Amino acid sequence: MSKIQVNTIELDYEDYGKGNVLLLLHGLGSSKKDWDSQVPFFSKTHRVITLDLRGHGASTKPTDAYGVGLMTEDVKAFLDQLHIKKATFVGFSMGGAVAFQMAASYPEYVENLVIVNSGPDFNDMGSIGEDLLNSRTHFLETKGLTLLAKEISFNMFPEDHQVDLRNAFETRCKNNDYNAYYQSFVTLMDWGLGNQLEHIKARTLVVASDMDYTPIAFKEAYVERMQNARLTLIENSRHGVVIDQPDAFNTALEKFLKDE
User: Fold this and answer.
1) Nearest-CA neighbor of 54 among 35, 37, 38, 76?
2) 2-123+193-258 topology per CATH
3) Overall pTM > 0.85
4) Which stretches of 119-177 are DSSP H helices?
């Protein structure tokens, strides 16, 4: 592990391989460990960088400075520190929001965009978003993070053969700082690109699981609004596709990168 100082905080990261850069951005309440099944595969052909976003993993956990905008500024400063001018951004869930914002705010840094079970407008998801915000904040405030981690992990990995995945993700989630998780969640649910989405020119792959929280139609709708995007469906997978179907995900991403 290495650390870089950006915007008054430290980001913890790992850097593997050589070649064109793949920057892998994890989901809410998790860490760069989300990408354990991708790093060995892609570092044979690419320079693969994983990092813990602010408030997560081994990175700094501020008291009140959170939000997709701040995380995006962190990522830009991080790349500048490493003298990286372009990368393929691969963002899972919350990481997808950060990747989207990078493509909107700093398109010159984005070689390709890969969005994994995420969306461009967490603040405009209708009843799905409202129910998630209300139910999760209520759960956190009444039952705490440990029980929430258990519920989230079971929903992501409910099969008997997934018990090891479930336990590992539960441990990662419950070890979060409560305030950092809460602030990251509520600011994420307040974020959206709006009509900036139509202006993103980056070549984009959207990866959707057949059993994700949001339906396939949700991803199809925003892919249609983008200039240069396509959708890939991964079957027999829930929200954590990079973990529960790593081979299928890696194959889809590899094909997208080779098609350049």
Assistant:
1) 76
2) Rossmann fold (3.40.50)
3) yes
4) 127-143, 145-156, 163-174
